[in-house]
Amino acid sequence: DEKDYELIQEIFNRKKKKCGARFIKMALENTKGITMNLKRIFRVMRKYNLVTKIRRANPYKQIAKATQEHKTCPNLLQRQFNQEEPEKSMLTDITYLFYGKGKKAYLSCVKDSTTREILAYHVSPSLQMDIVYQTLDKLKDRLGDTIHPEALLHSDQGITTRIRNFSAV
Questions:
Q1: What is the spatial distance between Cα 161 and Cα 148, in angstroms, rounded to a whole number?
Q2: Distance between CA atoms of residues 125 and 142, nearest Å
Q3: Residue 9 in contact with residue 21, Cβ under 8 Å?
Q4: Homologous superfamily of 75-168 in CATH?
Q5: How many C-beta neighbours within 10 Å does residue 113 have?
Q6: What torsion, rounded to 10 degrees, do the Cα atoms 122, 126, 130, 135 define?
Q7: Splitting the chain (169 residues) into consecutive groups of 10 residues, what average pLDDT does each group show?
Q8: Where along the chain do its domains lie?
Q9: What is the pTM of this model?
Q10: 83 phi and psi, to 5 degrees?
Q11: Could you tell me which of 169, 149, 166 has the C-alpha nearest to residue 158?
Q12: What are the residues whose beta carbons fall under 8 Å from the beta carbon of 42, sequence distance 6 or more?
C-alpha cells in the first residue's frame, strides 16, 4: 500500500486535491503505464484520508433553471425540420473553429432545413452579439423581399440567441 499511496498522492497533489479515484486511475494508466484496480485506489484514498475537494455548483446556472430564463421561445418546430417548402424553416447555430497555435474563431450560420443549403454565414474572432446580427443581415440581403410569410428561425437557444434584442430581430 505504501508504494500505491505514493503514486496516488503524487497525482492527487499535482491536481491540487481536485481529482477523484477515476481520474487518478486514468492518470496512472496514461502517464505511468500502471494499471491499478479502482477499488484499490478507493481503499488507499480512504486509508490515508485523501479527500477530494468538491466543486461548488454554479449559482448562475441554478438561477437560470429556477426562473426558466433559458427557455425564451416555444419550440414551434418540434423537430419537424423538413417543411417541404424551401426557406420556411431555417436553422441557426454558432460553432468554434480552432486553427493555428491555440487560436479560435466563431462561425455563425443559417441553414435551410429543407434543402440543407447554407443561406448565410459569418466568421468572427470573438463571440459577441455582432456575429449573430451580421449573419442575419447577410440572410436578409440574400432573401430580400422573398421571405416566406411563415418563416421560422430555429436555434438551440444558446446564450447569444437568448438575449432579448435577438428575439426582436
A1: 21
A2: 23
A3: no
A4: Ribonuclease H-like superfamily/Ribonuclease H (3.30.420.10)
A5: 19
A6: 10
A7: 91 88 94 93 93 76 57 59 69 86 89 84 85 86 76 62 48
A8: 2-47, 75-168
A9: 0.49
A10: -95, 5
A11: 166
A12: 21
